[in-house]
């Protein structure tokens, strides 16, 4: 009988107590790290995509005036009262008053300050074309080409068209379903609008034969006057109509309309009071 080699069995190693428990702890920690990483990435993606909507919902909504959009004037009549024709800075316009305080009229640079003996004052400004867009590109993060890509050639070459888009923008225009590019486009307009508007901010759309623009302030409520900005293809003018105090007579919308509707750019510029209804 031949000698048979002994059968070898694997050596059984006794594991220390609790080693399986530690192994499961490591597995659980690994799963938690993975879940945490997924959560962080998911939160980042969520904020990246929905941040404009979140900001519009919680930041812009409470800004006074940011929800205001241009509306039509409630009074489009034009005063027919006896008045004067004034000419300053290459433009002429009528005022429905005959009491210009000529001795205290001040003209300097691009502004003419025209007081009236009644206590009213008209400040008339001229501005270069594209002033708003030029300053925006110069001081802001967006370049001219980027503005054109976002808002079109019309808005990136016309102050009036760009400002019209800005004033039309509202926080409600951005929702969680708005594409991110469109959200960013509206968000930028809202940031600009937020910097310009204020409490009880009322905007009206105005148009004349030569200009179109905006009026800020409702004279039908207070009689305090208004600010009117008129835009043409190659220039911009601005009226600031105010009264010295509440003791002075109020200013009606029809009187402001008289100034706006008669504003005309001159090729040859007379200066001062050109004609009077007296």
In brief:
This protein is an alpha+beta fold and 278 residues long. The protein is built from 7 helices and 12 strands.
Give structural notes.
By secondary structure, the chain is an alpha+beta fold. It has one domain. 37% of the residues lie in helices and 22% in strands. The chain is built from 7 helices and 12 strands. The strands form 2 sheets. It has an 8-stranded mixed sheet with strand order 1-7-8-9-10-6-5-4, with helices on both faces. The protein has a 4-stranded antiparallel sheet with strand order 11-3-2-12. Helix 1 crosses helix 5 and helix 3 crosses helix 4. The N and C termini lie far apart (149 Å).
